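This part of the workshop introduces the protein records we will be handling. Backbone structure tokens are a discrete shorthand for how the chain folds in space. Once this layout is familiar, the rest of the handout is easier to follow. The record below serves as our worked example for the rest of this section.
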Amino acid sequence: MLPKWHILFGFVFSLVLVNFFNFSLFAGLIVLLSSIFIDLDHVLLYFLKTKNLNPWKFYEWSMIKRKDWARVPFEKKSTFYTPHFIFHGVEFLVLIILLSFLHVFFFWILIGVIFHLVLDFIEIFYKREHISIKISQIWLWQRNKNRKEFVVE
């Protein structure tokens, strides 16, 4: 999902939590920010591949990759390696759940992360992509064996 949609939906979700579920403004802000900044793993992956931290180059590269991926026939998509986004999976969720027992701050982060992942699942089902990318990085690692990388020129 494009960042603008995560920002918009995260903002609306945070407003609902603040106005109807008695969350403080600070808690709502943490939920909003965590629902957006979970996608920093995309930036991290880009940096590891390119050694470039220019946000405009990252955005340009991402949009090209997104358009190119959309053109790949559904039957052929399963032959390509799926990238690892370390904040998108049960492993990261378990860590945040454990931390939420230590302080409510992490519970607010957990709510934002879960909201973000729900939006991502909706997009995955709509696009008919494989769910492993958002379920488990260990499962994805196993699934990626013997697959080639999808390269954006």
